[in-house]
Amino acid sequence: MQSCDIGIIGLGLMGSAALHALMRRGADVLGFDPLRIGEARASSHGSCRIFRRFNFESDAYTALSDRAYAGWRALEAESGRSILKPCAVLEAGPAGCELVARSRAAAVAATGAATGQCNGREANAAFPAFALPDDWDVVVQDSGGILMAEQAMRAFRRGAEANIIHSAVQMHPEGAGIRIITAGGDVMARQVIVAAGPWIADLVPCLKPHLTVTRQAVGWFKPARQDTTRYGEFPIFILEAARGMFYGFPDFEGRGIKAAQHDHGRIVGADEWGPPADDAELEPVRATLAELIPGAAGPIVERDICLYTNAAKADVVPDEGNEFIVDRLPKDPRIIVASPCSGHGAKFATAIGAMLADMALDPQVRPPQPFRLDRFSGFA
Q: What is the pLDDT of residue 333?
């Protein structure tokens, strides 16, 4: 039977980052994933994700963003690929908007200064594609970027093909190790990292009560005013609007404006990728662009589905919770689970990959408290 010290199940951004970090440290590691880069499934598929230094979810993320940023730049230098394209991030909402207030607070906590603050009228003057209400709260981060997700995975996996087994797997803990069952035979691993995105609870059933998978419709829109929506002229945006929270990118690929609703969609199974997003699912996005970013509004030219894997907050004790799960299983510490999903974990992949490598190589290393399983009542 083939064996390894560390098996990584799931080679999206997180698993591929962990594989890259472990291989660089000379570890005996194998990665397992039935999907190849470019397939339109899994949480890491598609060309791009948003990078933010300051995060409205928590100002505690800033240090993690900074570690990830250094990791992305190092990966670019090593691979020769363009992975993180600098781009301003505009966040906006009605006066008193919590999203903007939290993002501003994160910036102040990190830098000691409130930078990039303006109102809707000033934002419209700076970015002519927008038509925000004059009194809206706005903050613009100059330290954001477009994370080229597919390019990042190619860079992580460069030179690693001999360490990757392209197969769906099952996992069975045994006394001698963790048996990983593949289509081509079994592999015995001393320990495993499970970073399987929406499939993680299928492999680690004790996570099922704490995770839900939601269907998120994504569209590309032909901009009404292409001159105002080009890369360099138009920011990444996150808006807290009347119909919900929305995000989008400049037309940096010539495909149009990629935009989507960030609020959780309907709950689905991990394999429910079809059918493609329909007009009804994308109507809130279309209407919000028409109202608030008319320069970007136009017909839908492409459609996609993304799945968010969301950690339940209602079951968290004693704090108000955090979306990510990165921890060893209390009943079997040979199994490390990594679910930094929830629609915004991608930007942290280099930092979390290094964290997972540290945990796999040193049993004394613990993840940050907000990521631990003991915050859930079922694990406390």
A: 97
SS3 at position 194: strand
| pLDDT on residue 319 | 47
Q: Specify whether domain 85-147+212-311 bears CATH 3.30.9.10.
A: yes
Q: Are 241 and 260 within 8 A, CB to CB? A: no
Is 2-45+150-209+314-375 assigned to CATH 3.50.50.60?
yes
At residue 283, φ and ψ (nearest 5 deg) are -60, -45
Residue 110 near residue 200 (C-beta atoms within 8 A) = no
Beta carbons of 122 and 114 less than 8 angstroms apart = no
Backbone angles phi, psi at 171, to 5 degrees: -135, 130
131-179 pLDDT per residue, tens: 999 999 999 999 999 999 999 999 999 999 999 999 999 999 999 999 9
Residues in the chain: 380
Strand partners of residue 260: 218, 247
Q: Where in the chain is the domain with CATH 3.30.9.10?
A: 85-147+212-311
Question: Using omega within 30 degrees of 0 as the cis cutoff, is the peptide bond preceding 275 cis?
Answer: yes
Q: Which amino acid is at 171?
A: M
Lowest mean pLDDT among 99-103, 217-221, 357-361, 367-371: 367-371
Task: Say how far apart CA 280 and CA 350 lie, in whole Å.
Answer: 36
Q: CATH 3.50.50.60: which residues of the chain? A: 2-45+150-209+314-375
* Cα 20 from Cα 130, distance rounded (Å): 40
Whether residue 236 contacts residue 50, with contact meaning beta carbons closer than 8 Å, is answered with yes
Helix, strand, coil percentages (3-state) for the chain, rounded to 5, are 30, 30, 40
